[in-house]
UniProtKB/TrEMBL annotation:
It holds the Pfam family Isochorismatase. Keywords: Hydrolase. It comes from the Bacteria. InterPro entries: Isochorismatase-like_dom (IPR000868), Isochorismatase-like_hydrls (IPR050272), Isochorismatase-like_sf (IPR036380). Residues 3-143 form the Isochorismatase-like domain. Belongs to the isochorismatase family. This is Isochorismatase family protein. One of its GO terms (molecular function) is hydrolase activity.
């Protein structure tokens, strides 16, 4: 069974810059998974430091309420990987999931780390490149012309271990829509 993993789609990130294109694609994936009665798991980066961006009690750390429905799952994490120090593995086993579809934020951190960790744990992983986003840019990494999503997608694809698709490619391949 497949599960959709939406990493860190939290207010502090969504309010950082315009992510309209990524949000449309992520919401399309969510809609398809709901229609197919397949599990949707949101990860939520949290920290105990009340001064931090992801302070668990702050509005910034919250996932917009319109996204999460009663039958969705939310995993709180404190590292870039959805598996480290969480119940993710147990939840996926309970749901009989063997294929993870990764989307969300930040492309080069939580999406990347969770994809690699999932592969290492034996899951089939599909990284939906254009349904990820990042608050960072070429200036952050002092690499003029860097397209972070394309770079991460290319590295994962070249690995031969993780399937990398665009949203429409994913929908065509797995849902015939």
């Amino acid at each position: 069974m497949k599960a959709l993993i939406i990493t860190d789609m939290q207010n502090v990130i969504l309010n950082h810059k315009n992510f309209d294109d990524e949000k449309i694609k992520i919401e399309k994936l969510i809609s398809v998974f709901r229609e197919n009665n397949e599990p949707i798991i949101f990860t939520k980066h949290v920290e105990d430091d009340s001064e931090g961006f992801f302070y668990k009690e702050s509005e910034g750390a919250q996932i917009p309420s319109y996204l999460v429905k009663d039958n969705d799952y939310v995993i709180e994490k404190t590292t870039p990987s959805m598996f480290r120090g969480t119940n993710a593995q147990e939840l996926l086993e309970k749901l009989n999931v063997d294929h993870l579809i990764i989307a969300g934020f930040n492309t080069e951190y939580c999406c990347l780390f969770s994809s690699i960790a999932a592969f290492d744990k034996g899951y089939k992983v599909t990284f939906v490149e254009d349904a990820t986003g990042t608050t960072n840019d070429e200036t952050t990494y002092e690499m003029p012309g860097l397209d972070i999503k394309d770079f991460i997608g290319t590295v994962l694809d070249w690995s031969g271990a993780i399937e990398v698709l665009y949203c429409e490619e994913y929908l065509d391949k797995y849902n015939n829509l």
